[in-house]
Write a structure and sequence with these properties.
about 160 residues; Aminopeptidase; 5 helices
Length: about 160
Amino acid sequence: MLTIRAANVGDAAVISKLISELAEYEKQSEQVRTTEADILRDGFGEHPEFRVLIAEWHGVPAGFALFFSYYSTWRGAGLYLEDLFVRPELRKRGIGKALLAEVARAAEQEKRVFIRWAVLNWNQSAIAMYRTLGAGFLDEWRTVLLAGEGLKKLTGYLPITVV
């Protein structure tokens, strides 16, 4: 039996574990910097930065969806789906689709007009699922990330006086 519920403070360790499993699946384990303490502070503090849905299969955590508010100057208010993950041994049971449907319901209830997310180009099973749902792909756009030394270096660039 599948249950999907909003995560709570007591789920921080589970969320952290699922994030680690996602990173391992994507062959990016060394990139994870987020700690359980970060999840507690950023997801369950006074002003949460994100929301998480937990999928449970017969009472056992099976996957999660992490998302947050997003605004497009062209489309308006939406949600950004940062992560959608189902443990490999529990795939092909509709869990990922059910998680995505719950995010869609949240968008609809909040009068948001879209959900945006990214998928790795090698993840053909996810791409196929998204296509069957009617998702469009923005192939002409490239995702950009500025972090670490590049971010630090740019903060020092001030050609004019900023007031």
